[in-house]
Amino acid sequence: ATPDMLYIFDNGSAFRRDPEIPLVIPEINGHVLVQKDGQSQPKLIANPNCTTAIAAMALWPLHCEFGIKKLIVSTYQAASGAGAAGMEELAHGAKAFLADEPVTNKVFSYPLPFNLIPHIDKFQENGYTKEEMKVTWETRKIFDEPDLAVSCTAARIPIMRAHSEALTIETVKPVNIARARELLAKADGVDLIDEPEKLLYPMPKNATKKFNIEAGRLRKSLVFGDHGLELFVSGDQLLRGAALNAVLIAEFLENPRAIPQFTKKPASCTLSKDQQQVALGLAAGVAVGVASVLAYGLVKKN
């Protein structure tokens, strides 16, 4: 590939807040990658944080329909968010705990087995952690809503893979629960799992190795009333939050399409079988700690 055919996707956090670097989830804001008159197409593209990406997939269609004024997020994040070393520490620690042996910790601030740690990344001056602030910063940028009120509390839990999040939103327009379910059922990248009477709801075990995130537990908020909605989401952060999103960006660059904002559900980004294998392979690489910068060369078709 020649230089003009080379794109770099950064899975790290270094460029996400840079106003000159697009932060992209193709189904939501892929339009920022479309070359405009007199402007060069961006070659460096940032991938969002995994927790942001999982929440955004469910929140975007709701935002388009009802308008989100405030967002409160509580995350329940798997050990794999800390890489292969985190998964290994959890596995060995659980084995030691069950054998009534000392449990050691190097990756996490405390032993994770049979525990919950409300601390991911460095604490900031405002009392939030950097992981929590990423959700605020990145959701605002991806949604192009710089004044959106977002508060997040992030916790590490003792499971291997897939993150879960409890989402509470206050909306501009009154929320119709049936309409919210309809939007999520039709949304790209989302599986609606919302039949509590049948004990069907999102869970990280079921979301593991799935391309789509799961959304469910929809209900009117007791805090915000008619202008509020509560829901729960689970998603494989190694796929939707990293490798899969990178492949979808590549697919969009190769076959760009218009994605209207705040009008209807985003255009579909479909994956071929070969691209699915690439995404799974990249996810496996993420799990063992690949470098954060992924160079992806695309040969332009005639």
In short:
By secondary structure, the chain is an alpha/beta fold. The chain is built from 8 helices and 9 strands.
Question: What's the order of the H and E elements?
Answer: EHEHEHHEEHEHEEHHE
Full CATH superfamily name? Dihydrodipicolinate Reductase, domain 2
Strand content: 15-25%
Report the CATH topology name. Answer: Dihydrodipicolinate Reductase, domain 2
Record field, number of beta strands? 9
Unreliable spans are 258-272, 285-302
CA distance, first residue to last residue: 14 Å
Keywords: Membrane, Transmembrane, Transmembrane helix
InterPro entries: NAD(P)-bd_dom_sf, Semialdhyde_DH_dimer_dom
Pfam families: Semialdhyde_dhC
Protein name: Aspartate-semialdehyde dehydrogenase
Question: What do you see in this structure?
Answer:
- There is one protein chain.
- The protein is an alpha/beta fold.
- It has one domain: Dihydrodipicolinate Reductase, domain 2.
- Helix content is 32%, strand content 21%.
- Helix 2 packs across helix 4.
- The longest helix is centred in the first third of the chain and has 17 residues.
- It is globular.
- The C terminus is likely disordered.
- InterPro entries: NAD(P)-bd_dom_sf (IPR036291), Semialdhyde_DH_dimer_dom (IPR012280).
- It comes from Phytophthora palmivora.
